[in-house]
Design goal:
single chain, 166 residues, alpha+beta, five-stranded mixed sheet, 4 helices, 30% strand
């Protein structure tokens, strides 16, 4: 009788491990899918400017940096694209946990149009950014994006470069 009980306990333990592995696989799949959604909108919408696919990646009521005024963000993106028509972002790192995806990017582009009062310089600029996106039901519902705009403005001469401390 002891042998049967031990077998049942072992069997129950194996079932638990199998269930745990199955849940782990499902979570990994979800995290990879969420990262793919962010990579997709970054490539299609931001790099290629393909606004036709916007709704397939982004929720209609998305919150961007605490605001629901997505028109303002799209307007800012258009101004940036006008000044840097070849602007391209490169995904450097991407980490997902739960419903959040954090992406570290580098932006590159040539300053060919006026930007924040700075006349075109023809300079190739590089600056970094971080995006924290929340994904629900396969769409981005919240975006927290930060870019090193000071570095960009220094590179195009819109701000003086910081002087080293003496």
């Amino acid at each position: 009788m002891k042998q049967i009980v031990l077998t049942l306990i072992c069997f129950a333990g194996l079932c638990q491990i199998t269930l745990s592995q199955s849940n782990s696989d499902a979570e990994k799949t979800k995290l990879e899918r969420n990262k793919a959604i962010v990579r997709g909108y970054m490539d299609e919408v931001l790099n290629k400017g393909n606004l036709d696919v916007f709704d397939s990646y982004i929720s209609a009521d998305v919150v961007f940096n605490g605001s629901k005024d997505l028109k303002q963000q799209l307007s800012s993106n258009k101004a940036l694209r006008t000044a840097f028509p070849d602007l391209h972002l490169i995904i450097e790192d991407q980490i997902a946990e739960g419903d959040k995806v954090v992406t570290r990017v580098t932006f590159e582009g040539t300053h060919k149009g006026e930007f924040r009062g700075a006349a075109p310089t023809g300079k190739l600029v590089r600056y970094s950014g971080i995006a924290i996106d929340t994904i629900v039901d396969g769409k981005v519902v919240e975006m927290r994006h930060l870019a090193d705009t000071l570095s960009l403005l220094h590179q195009i001469g819109a701000l003086p470069s910081p002087q080293p401390k003496k």
